């Protein structure tokens, strides 16, 4: 019988199954819970999935009822009716998941004075009559005090909205005015107006809706970045976009559509209408920034990896299909370099790294880890390729932080002790879990300083691709199969942690700063929230500093985006961060490779 490999996205879990295993059973083998109310009979239509690549068994009649011909053409199937006929990449939409991935969207938010980039002006006009035949717009120009605003070309959607709304509201209303005196849209007199801060991560999107008069957070939520179906990391997504223009357009549409849907759901729940959304602040790494704004990404995938633009951007939401008031604004803070984006600027802003006393290091760990060193108001930043191991990828039994992922592990009293996300039976290992396991393996003498298993390794087995330990025996796992940690997994963690440590060392060398001078070590981002500091210190990923130096601040990029939504002064501060920042290209740094090699071991 032929076996095929199936990659489930966005959870990042891989299984090998035979051609007689339905995709629904394959998800169960992978320890994932799909909604399947009818138990696989084919009548509930809950188990919708999309085949991104590979070949499946023939479409069944029942599926022709469930999907339109276009949907079928785009790969939509019922997991209980489809069988693999080749290796596959399968996208599981959020609505088909019985349990969702843990998404860290919160960060510590500083209090800022609410002075947003938009303001409101209430007005009341005389209605037209047979003696007063002025056009609607001219009536407005004569009727409101701030005439300068109306000198600018308002654009057709704004004029359109004005004429329709005035007839409904009895010629009284509220005009929303944005930066450079542009008209954003019209509301009824006194109607509240809102802004949206968006953090576009490679893996997840976080959205925060804020009242722009009070600064209050009205709603927030996070979803997986739907672009994952095009590749786990930015490099594969750039390659996909470069393959043809259609693919780049699809990547942008997916992103904008996901934001529209998420914002749409949140404002529906709060009884807010689209016209009340007047401003967006969007941050992301440089690739996500470019995908979102529809900028070319080809040059990001080729040396010397330069962005299309570094400076901040202001444009109309409708230019890229984002919903809101007719001329809702979008602000994107500056990028630093090809692999250090506006999200890093937002993180530096929110953590106040540039203005802290003494030396601060601030980093956000991801597939690429962006690191900045701040000293006397000046910054130096770099990006190191830490790889996807901390997201569970490239780890044999790795997965993202979904229920059942081992997230904490310690070896003591001769056995492994662990906890899983949502306390579900273990089905795999997420980033914080594998970091703990490697740290514990080293501490308990089961691996040596070079990462090789020693004679003390517990439940060491030989596998075709090398040695492995059985972390969880099949009888205790949620899949019935052993959960392994292989020599290769340990190697992946060594590579990742060496890249981060060598990046830190490069910044210290460039500024002639000694480790002991570091006053604050700020760890941001989702993985940074869940990683266990003691494990990161044990394996040498972070320098051994006093514990009170470390700050784990959560989604600081999202917090920075919220600040910039509420405060023009924060936008200025973000832009001045770029003016005081130098980018260090590690590939040309003479000491980087040596430092990287030296950081690979555990001693
Ligand atoms: Fe009900 Fe597939 S499980 S249709």
Write down the Rg.
Answer: 26 Å
Given helix and strand content, the structural type is alpha/beta
- Which ligands appear in the coordinates? FE2/S2 (inorganic) cluster
Question: Uncertain regions: pLDDT < 50 for 5+ in a row?
Answer: none
DSSP strand tally:
26
How are the strands of the largest sheet arranged? 11-10-9-12-14-13
The main sheet comes to: 6 strands, mixed
Helical proportion, percent range: 25-40%
Q: What is the residue-averaged pLDDT?
A: 90
The backbone outline, from C-alpha atoms, is: globular
Strand content range: 15-25%
The number of helices is 17
Distance between the termini: 47 Å
Layout of secondary structure:
Elements: E1 3-9, E2 13-18, H1 23-29, E3 48-53, H2 61-66, H3 69-73, E4 76-78, E5 88-91, E6 119-124, H4 136-143, H5 147-151, H6 156-169, E7 172-177, E8 183-187, E9 194-200, E10 204-211, E11 217-224, H7 234-243, H8 245-270, E12 277-284, H9 286-293, E13 313-316, E14 329-332, H10 342-351, E15 359-364, E16 368-375, E17 378-385, E18 405-412, E19 415-420, E20 428-429, H11 431-443, E21 460-463, E22 466-472, E23 483-486, H12 487-511, E24 518-524, H13 526-530, H14 533-538, E25 550-554, H15 556-566, H16 568-579, E26 581-583, H17 592-599
Parallel strand pairs: 1-5, 9-12, 12-14, 15-24, 17-26, 18-20, 24-25
Antiparallel strand pairs: 1-2, 3-4, 3-5, 6-7, 7-8, 9-10, 10-11, 13-14, 15-16, 16-17, 18-19, 21-22, 22-23
Bound molecules: FE2/S2 (inorganic) cluster (FES).
């Amino acid at each position: 019988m032929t076996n095929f490999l199936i990659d489930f996205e966005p959870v990042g879990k891989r299984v090998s199954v035979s051609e007689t295993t339905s995709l629904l059973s394959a998800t169960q083998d992978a320890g994932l819970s799909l909604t399947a109310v009818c138990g696989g009979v084919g009548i509930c239509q809950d188990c919708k999935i999309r085949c991104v690549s590979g070949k499946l068994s023939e479409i069944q009649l029942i599926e022709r009822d469930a999907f339109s011909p276009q949907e079928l053409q785009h790969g939509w199937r019922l997991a209980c009716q489809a069988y693999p006929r080749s290796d596959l990449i399968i996208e599981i939409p959020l609505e088909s998941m019985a349990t969702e991935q843990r998404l860290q969207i919160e960060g510590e938010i500083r209090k800022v004075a609410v002075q947003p980039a938009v303001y409101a002006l209430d007005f009341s006009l005389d209605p037209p009559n047979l003696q007063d035949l002025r056009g609607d717009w001219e009536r407005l120009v004569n009727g409101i005090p701030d005439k300068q605003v109306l000198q600018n070309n308002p654009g057709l959607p704004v004029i359109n909205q004005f004429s329709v709304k005035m007839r409904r509201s009895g010629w009284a209303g509220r005009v929303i005015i944005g930066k450079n005196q542009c008209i954003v849209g019209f509301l009824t007199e006194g109607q509240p107006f809102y802004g949206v801060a968006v953090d576009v991560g490679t893996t997840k999107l976080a959205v925060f809706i804020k009242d722009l008069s009070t600064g209050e957070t009205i709603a927030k939520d996070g979803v997986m970045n739907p672009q994952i179906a095009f590749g786990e990391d930015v490099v594969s997504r750039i390659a996909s976009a470069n393959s043809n223009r259609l693919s780049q357009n699809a990547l942008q549409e997916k992103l904008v559509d996901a934001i529209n849907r998420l914002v749409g759901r949140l404002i529906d729940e709060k009884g807010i209408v689209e016209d009340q959304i007047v401003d967006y602040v969007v941050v992301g790494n440089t690739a996500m920034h470019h995908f979102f704004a529809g900028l070319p990404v080809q040059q990001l995938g080729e040396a010397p990896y330069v962005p299309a633009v570094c400076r901040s951007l202001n444009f109309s939401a409708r230019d890229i299909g984002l919903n809101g008031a007719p001329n809702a604004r979008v602000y994107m803070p500056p990028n630093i370099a090809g692999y250090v984006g506006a999200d890093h600027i937002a993180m530096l802003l929110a953590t106040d790294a540039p203005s802290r006393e003494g030396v601060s290091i601030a980093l956000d760990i991801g597939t690429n880890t962006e690191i900045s060193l701040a000293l006397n108001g000046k910054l130096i930043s770099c990006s190191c390729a830490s790889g996807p191991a901390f997201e569970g990828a490239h780890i044999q039994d790795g997965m993202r932080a979904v229920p059942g992922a081992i997230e904490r592990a310690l070896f003591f009293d001769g056995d492994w002790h662990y906890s899983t996300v949502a306390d579900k039976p273990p089905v795999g290992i997420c980033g914080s879990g594998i970091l703990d396991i490697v740290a514990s393996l080293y501490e308990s003498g089961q691996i040596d300083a070079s990462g090789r298993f020693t004679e003390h390794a517990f439940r060491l087995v030989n596998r075709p691709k090398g040695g492995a330990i059985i972390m969880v025996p099949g009888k205790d796992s949620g899949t019935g199969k052993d959960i392994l940690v292989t020599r290769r997994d340990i190697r992946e963690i060594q590579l990742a942690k060496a890249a981060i440590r060598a990046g830190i060392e490069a910044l210290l060398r460039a500024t002639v700063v000694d480790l002991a001078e570091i006053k604050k070590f700020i760890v941001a981002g989702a993985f940074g929230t869940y990683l266990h500091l003691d494990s990161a210190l044990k394996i040498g990923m972070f320098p051994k500093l006093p514990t009170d130096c470390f700050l784990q601040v959560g989604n600081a990029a999202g917090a920075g985006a919220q600040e910039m939504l509420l405060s023009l002064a924060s936008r200025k501060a973000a832009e001045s961060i770029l003016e005081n920042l130098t980018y260090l290209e590690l590939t040309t740094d003479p000491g980087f490779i040596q430092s990287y090699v030296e950081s690979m071991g555990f001693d």
